[in-house]
Amino acid sequence: MAKERRLVSFDWAMKSILRNKANFDILEGFLTSLLEENIKIESILESESNKDSIDERNNRVDLRCRDSEGREIIIEIQSQHEFNYLQRVLFGTSKAIVESLSTGEDYQKVAKVISISILYHPLDCSENTDYIYYGRTEMIGLHKKDRLLVRRAAQALPESGGDVMPEYYFLCVGNYKERYGKKIDEWMHFFKTQAIPADASAPGLKEAKKRLDYLALSAEERARFDRYQDGLRYQINIMESALTRGEARGLAKGRAEGREEGRAEGLRQAARAMLERGMDLETISDLTGLSEDELLSMKK
Fold first, then answer.
1. Where are the domains of the chain?
2. Percent of the chain, pLDDT > 70?
3. d(CA 254, CA 249)
4. How many angstroms separate the CA atoms of 295 and 119, rounded?
5. Are 80 and 121 in contact (CB under 8 A)?
């Protein structure tokens, strides 16, 4: 069997290579595999949330797309390594909805938003064993259990909450095992291993294998990617070691409240280490969940 070529990680590619329109077919292949319908990208939304950041750990891209029925939707893809991701996802979808509506436009122009989060950190709850979680909002009658339908105009087809409200996909990379039942499984293999098998057939993966090849990058791009990977490993090591030490201390004080107390102490230790390394307050706050005021008090 031929050795799999090393590819750059998808999260880093989203922040750089995949923003090029010539590479939209890779993103379209991923979206088509996940949503199981043909998705065409029209443009990357030029919004505050899409600007490049010095902190490349926060990788997010908002796409204006058309689904297989020609309906316009906004798809928000973000790759996350930090905790507090539920709150971050909620904020991101809310921001995408607001930014989809120009000043003075009617509410009927509000775009449908699909939020896709590729989660690289381990989930906190051992009960979470699936590798893809999906959610949408529906309004259900408390007594008759019927689904609420609303007509936007007299002749329009009725809409449900799920037709309008955001939809969420959480792809838990750490939970993925070797499965090839669906096309998205081949993408999950790529997310977890940074490699694409020779027999991969999911849309977009053949293009990804060519264009995300580490050796095909310029020397400058390779150096940038290596720095990004090193930075991620450092941040994850800080978090894991600090949480482990903190939980051990907390457990020594009492098992009932030890884990929560230890976790809080571990986050504080991680924050102190990041402050000593000169990391900015916003980044540390995102990683640990501590407020900037708390971080400022640690610096005194």
1. 10-215, 219-299
2. 74
3. 9
4. 25
5. yes
* Distant-in-sequence, close-in-space partners of 78: CB < 8 Å, separation ≥ 6: 58, 59, 60, 61, 88, 89, 92, 115, 116, 117, 118
Q: Please state the pTM of the whole predicted model.
A: 0.71
| Average pLDDT rounded to a whole number, residues 68-94 | 80
| Whole-number Å distance between alpha carbons of 14 and 238 | 25
pLDDT at position 106: 79
If we measure between CA atoms, which residue out of 279, 288, 296, 268 comes closest to residue 81? 288
Measured CA to CA in angstroms, residue 199 lies from 98, 180, 202, 216 at distances of 42, 11, 9, 21
Amino acid letter, 70: G
Residue 236 CB-half CA count within 13 A: 12
88 burial via Cβ count (<10 Å: 0-12, 13-18, 19+): middle
Tokens standing for 22? 């010539």
**201 pLDDT higher than 50:** yes
Cα 52 to Cα 21: distance, rounded to the nearest angstrom = 16
Strand ranges (E), 45-176: 59-66, 72-80, 112-119, 132-136, 149-150, 159-160, 167-172
Q: Which of 66, 65, 96, 98 minimizes the C-alpha distance to 78?
A: 96
| Burial grade of 95 (CB within 10 A; 0-12, 13-18, 19 or more) | middle
How long is the chain? 300
pLDDT of residue 81: 58
Torsion of CA 170, 173, 174, 176, to 10 degrees: 100
Q: What per-residue confidence (pLDDT) applies to 270?
A: 78
The C-alpha atoms of residue 21 and residue 298 are separated, in whole angstroms, by 44
Chain-centroid distance, C-alpha 175 = 15
Mean predicted lDDT score pLDDT of the chain: 78
